[in-house]
Every structure is written in structure tokens, then in C-alpha cells.
Design a protein that fits this description.
heterodimer; A: 172 residues; alpha+beta; 6 strands; B: 178 residues; 43% helix
């Protein structure tokens, strides 16, 4: 296993342990035929004003060519929160207006709709450098996770209501 | 000026120097605030895409007081570029479709449309934790600035073409540009 693979593996294992320390459900998936990278999946429970929304948070290193891995001393971990799946296309217009407004305000990350998979998401990518110490990886991850949770708590009710067409554009 | 604000100021001035060394025109604005002494950079990027469009890029740390940084445990470095304002009304829909595709792919930040000013912008931010030494933090910012400029450069032409009605978002998708 070359250094990069080892770094990705150890970073994901470090993050998995940190989620366990924070008592957030988490599972680490090793590379297989379907995915060439380690994927960490956790569940952020009880989000929103009434605590009724659970959000899947997927984390993985962005895919890089092997050639690039040899020369680039860092890679991005993508933190991808699935806010809602199977978003109805009829709500795209209202959602896009809302997302546009929210993206101008949220301090870190961005909201969007993946039209191929019909997923409403919040995404943040953070560079992790190959010689980063475990303690720094943990501190970065803690800061990112707490911000993601805070942002989701602030916006998730309005987003889901709009996606479910309970709210029309222009009201917010 | 507190220790944390000095840390931010040193980082941003290093970024300014590096950008000047590679040929960017950089203006430094110091806010008249005795407590923060905040520095904002204004960079001219005059060769975006094959069209060689010119964009101004603003870089700064999120304006936070020392005790706020202590409480949160991190700093937020923001980069913002207003690419085009006064967008033609009839292109906004196509632009929004293009932005939706692009934002799913970009590793940093997001493009958006400011509805008040009818302006296309690209915005990104980077977390720097409070315990990072200056060298590590600077490296993070270098990466972040580099990715921002490269992304702006990469998507400039297709977005400007849509604004100029040279192509639609659907045409751009079919050509593999989005």
C-alpha cells in the first residue's frame, strides 16, 4: 500500500473513531468494486426545530488519478449531507431560489440539488495534507461537523418544507 | 489588536505577497478598526478562461472578534468574486441550471446569482482551526486560493457564453462542458 492509500485509510479510521467518541452512529466502508475509496457514513439525528429530521453524512476523499497522487501532497475530503432524496422536479424552481439565497449566507459549505440523483444536499470539501497530525485531523473534523450540524439545524425545516411544496417561493 | 487577529493579518498579507510574486495585481484595504486591523485583499484576475475575461476577487477573514474566535475555535477565510452584474433577465434560468450542475462538481465553494443585483458570483470559504500553526494554516489557504482561481478559470467561458446567449445550459451539458 503506497503512502497515499495508507494516509487515506488512517485518516478515515481516525474520523470514524472521532464520530464514535461524539456518539454519532458511523460506519466505515472499505474500497471495493463499486468504490475505489474509503467511505465514511454517519447519521446526524434529530435535526431541525422539532428534532424530526435525520441526515446521512457521507465523507470520502475526492477521486484522484494515481499519477496525481504521486505529486499532489493533499486531497480534499468531501463532507456530503443528504438532506432529502427523491426531490420532486416540480419543487426545483422554488428550491433553487431558496438555495441561492441561503448559499449567500452560510459561512461554510454550499447547498445544492444533484439533478441526476434527485438529492438535496449540503456539501463542504476540506483539504487534508498528507503529513497532517491526527490531532489536527480531529480538530478540523470537529469544527466542520459542528458547523454542518449548526447550518442544517438552521435551514433544514425550510428546505424540506419547500421540497415537499409546503412552502412556495417568495414567502421566506 | 488581539493575537488571533494578528494571526489572520499575517496570513492574509503572506497570501497577498505570494499572489503578487506570481503576477497578480493586489490591492490591500485595511479597515479602520483599531481592534481588528482587518485586511481585505482585492485581486485582479485578468485572464479567466480562453476569453481572458477580467474578474475582481475579494479575500478576507470573516469579521470576528477575538472572543468569538476563542469560543468557536476556528477562523473562516472567505473568497468572493462578482463575475458579472446586470444579468439579462432571459438568461437567468439557463444560468441557474448550469450553476446547479457545476456546484455539484466543484471542490470548493459555489456559484450563485444575487437576485437583488442580478449578479453572477462565485464564493468559497475555508476553515482554519485555532490550533493550527501559521505554516499549516498558510498551506491550507494556498490550496484554497489555488482551487478557487482554477475553478473560476475553468468555468468562466461556459458561464459567460450562457449569459451572452451563445449557448444554453442544455447545449453545454450535451457538449460535456457542465
Amino acid at each position: 500500500m503506497n503512502n497515499w492509500r495508507q494516509f487515506e485509510k488512517s485518516t478515515m479510521e481516525t474520523l470514524a473513531k472521532e464520530f464514535e467518541n461524539l456518539q454519532i452512529p458511523v460506519k466505515l466502508y472499505e474500497p471495493d468494486e463499486q468504490s475505489s475509496t474509503y467511505v465514511l457514513v454517519s447519521l446526524l439525528e434529530g435535526l431541525g426545530e422539532k428534532g424530526e429530521h435525520d441526515v446521512k453524512l457521507e465523507m470520502l476523499f475526492l477521486p484522484l488519478d494515481e499519477g496525481d497522487r504521486e505529486v499532489i501532497p493533499f486531497n480534499f475530503i468531501q463532507f456530503f449531507a443528504v438532506i432529502k432524496e427523491n426531490v420532486n422536479e416540480a419543487s426545483y424552481e422554488a428550491l433553487m431560489e431558496l438555495i441561492n439565497d441561503m448559499n449567500s449566507k452560510i459561512p461554510v459549505g454550499s447547498l445544492g440539488i444533484s439533478t441526476d440523483s434527485k438529492i438535496l444536499y449540503l456539501k463542504y470539501c476540506c483539504p487534508f495534507i498528507q503529513d497532517m497530525a491526527s490531532e489536527m485531523i480531529i480538530t478540523m473534523a470537529d469544527a466542520i461537523i459542528s458547523l454542518i450540524i449548526q447550518e442544517l439545524n438552521t435551514f433544514i425545516d425550510t428546505l424540506i418544507d419547500t421540497a415537499d411544496k409546503r412552502l412556495k417561493k417568495g414567502i421566506h | 489588536m488581539g493575537e488571533k487577529n494578528i494571526f489572520e493579518r499575517n496570513l492574509i498579507l503572506k497570501i497577498a505577497e505570494e499572489l503578487e510574486n506570481v503576477g497578480f495585481l493586489v490591492k490591500r484595504f485595511v479597515l479602520d478598526d483599531a481592534e481588528s486591523g482587518e485586511v481585505i485583499l482585492d485581486i485582479v484576475f485578468n485572464c479567466a478562461g480562453d476569453r481572458a475575461d477580467t474578474h475582481e476577487i475579494e479575500m478576507s477573514f470573516l469579521h470576528l472578534k477575538e472572543d468569538q474566535i476563542n469560543e468557536m475555535g476556528f477562523h473562516v477565510f472567505e473568497i468572493f468574486s462578482c463575475m458579472k452584474d446586470d444579468l439579462p433577465f432571459n438568461t437567468c434560468n439557463q444560468l441557474a441550471r448550469a450553476i446547479l450542475r457545476i456546484n455539484r462538481k466543484v471542490p470548493a465553494g459555489a456559484f450563485g446569482i444575487d437576485e437583488d443585483y442580478r449578479a453572477l458570483y462565485y464564493k468559497s470559504s475555508c476553515l482554519i482551526t485555532d490550533d493550527m500553526v501559521e505554516e499549516a494554516a498558510y498551506h491550507m489557504l494556498q490550496i484554497h486560493v489555488g482551487v478557487f482561481i482554477n475553478t473560476l478559470d475553468y468555468y468562466n467561458d461556459v458561464l459567460m457564453d450562457i449569459i451572452d446567449e451563445n449557448r444554453t445550459a442544455d447545449e453545454a451539458i450535451k457538449k460535456g462542458l457542465l
